[in-house]
Design goal:
Blueprint lengths: L3 E7 L5 H10 L9 H7 L3 E8 L4 E12 L2 E4 L11 E2 L6 H22 L2 E6 L7 H5 L3 E11 L4 H6 L3 H12 L3 E4 L4 H10 L6 H13 L3 E7 L5 E10 L2 E9 L8 H11 L7 E3 L6 H8 L4 E11 L3 H17 L4
Parallel strand pairs: 4-6, 11-12
Antiparallel strand pairs: 1-2, 2-3, 3-4, 3-5, 6-13, 7-12, 7-13, 8-9, 9-10, 10-11
Helix pairs in contact: 2-8, 6-9
Length: 332
């Protein structure tokens, strides 16, 4: 392949059908990279596209960004745990495949550095070849998601539950809690606004619910008592052979009744045919990791890529700003 080039496609230059078809066919396909998902969760985004001299697309990389103080920054949008560099499927020898990926990534990184000054980008675990980022000075911070293999015989999944998780499920059942599929997510979102310390955008969540519901790839389940009171709820996505946790909330005053554990077990029990995994998305918080681990999940690594491309004086100022903001929890 003699000539390849990477160029920027602004959002209004991207043909949805062309972009989404490429996502569909890529081995790195993920629900977050479709135009209809990015348009909801991103403040703004563009695409880095690599093509050959025959105008054939070889790779794409969606770049969410915002501008502050005239500085463009790549960030991970809310309700989007990771994105990816998506490649065209190839039938090549491994050495040639990696050689081509190296060239593509070098061009992609060059365009990214010319366009974005501060990059923070979570990559899928399927992006296994990231050395060109390392060679260009990117920090590669290891993160973990948590996956659960769904067995044909759900009793096998039940046997993998920890003693504490089983106890929580039995406690919920004994208290009279049952699980209901939701036509509305208002009750779950209301609990989240009350109980979750980290801010989230309810409007974005409702937009996702509306759009993805028409595509039949989003569902929600809540745990309720005999009086219809909601104890907890989970919103999750369906993409190919897995369910993906999107949002969940539980009434902390009722946590001891095990509503959240009951919901997760309900989702596992009633997984559709063809669903092989539940992706819990994960957390680096120890207590949350312990909760997920109680369901027999396995950690799945991915990387957060980070680089500050500002000039030295501005880089120092940005580092000072970031430290001050995190230390005292206010904007300066």
């Amino acid at each position: 392949m003699k000539k390849i080039e990477t160029f920027v496609l602004q959002r209004d230059q991207i043909e949805d059908a062309v972009w989404n078809e490429f996502v569909d066919q890529s081995p790195q396909a993920n629900i977050y990279s479709y135009t209809w998902y990015l348009d909801v969760v991103c403040e703004a985004w563009f695409g880095l596209v690599t093509k050959n001299n025959a105008e054939e697309w070889l790779a794409i990389m969606p770049i969410p960004f915002f501008s502050k103080l005239k500085i463009k920054r790549c960030y991970m949008p809310i309700f989007c745990q990771h994105l990816a560099i998506l490649f065209k499927p190839w039938q090549k020898k491994k050495e040639k495949e990696l050689g081509l990926k190296k060239r593509i990534l070098q061009l992609t990184i060059s365009q990214l550095s010319a366009t974005i000054k501060i990059v923070r980008y979570n990559t899928l675990g399927s992006n296994r070849y990231l050395l060109p980022f390392y060679w260009q000075g990117y920090q590669m911070n290891l993160r973990y998601s948590y996956h659960l293999k769904i067995e044909a015989d759900k009793q096998n999944n039940f046997e993998q539950l920890s003693h504490k998780t089983r106890t929580c499920i039995r406690k919920a059942i004994n208290h009279g809690l049952t699980c209901e599929n939701c036509e509305s997510i208002e009750a779950i979102v209301s609990i989240g606004e009350k109980e979750i310390a980290v801010n989230f955008d309810r409007q974005v969540l409702f937009k996702l619910w509306k759009i993805l519901k028409t595509k039949k790839i989003i569902n929600a389940v809540k745990a309720v008592d005999n009086n219809g009171k909601t104890y907890a709820g989970i919103i999750y996505l369906k993409f190919r052979d897995k369910y993906i946790y999107l949002f969940g909330a539980a009434d902390k005053s009722l946590n001891h009744f095990g509503g959240m554990s009951l919901i997760i077990w309900h989702i596992i029990q009633h997984s559709e045919n063809g669903i092989a995994y539940h992706d819990f998305q994960g957390s680096m918080i120890e207590s949350i990791e312990k909760f997920y681990r109680g369901f027999g999940t396995s950690p799945k690594p991915y990387y957060q890529l980070y680089k500050n491309n500002l000039s030295y004086p501005l880089k120092v100022m940005h580092q000072l700003y970031t430290f001050t903001k995190s230390k005292f929890n206010f904007n300066v």
